[in-house]
Amino acid sequence: MGGSPPPPAAFCRAEGRPNEGRRHALPCRRGLPRERRPGGPLGGCRLADRRPSGPWTHLHRYGLFGGTTVGFGGLEPYGTDVLLRSLCVMPIFHRRGIGRNITLLLMTRALDLGARQAYALPSTQESSAFFQSLGFAPIPRPAAPPAILATRQASGLCPASTPLLTRRIAL
Hints:
Blueprint: E1 10-13, E2 23-28, E3 58-63, E4 69-78, E5 81-89, H1 98-112, E6 117-120, H2 125-133, E7 137-139, H3 146-149, H4 152-157, E8 164-168
Parallel strand pairs: 5-6
Antiparallel strand pairs: 1-2, 3-4, 4-5, 6-8, 7-8
């Protein structure tokens, strides 16, 4: 039993929505550097856009109760559709089911926001296989809703050869 108790968890605001005022149950320690600073954890991820931002982007940091960051995930809701983006798991936590859990948590948040269909633009074959293992299926880009096709990822950051995957969000 001995030893000191773990530091109390603080709740961090969702990145990308500084004026939102709402807090998410995201344990972290006070005083941690912002993840989007150059050299921060998000900078070490292989993402098409290392600075996801915009009026609709919700970027969430996921961590252990002791404050260790395990990954990030973002979503852009567009009515009943949502683009999942910037999914990243820190390398030391790979192959532990964390990416799967982050994806399911993001889809739960999207469902709470009214989304019913999720889309993803995976940047590598490995990430494409990952999303397909979670039930996402490839579709032709013209079959996607205009709002999804107009996103920065679909319209420019990801090449036209990047597959567009989709999955129905259901409980």
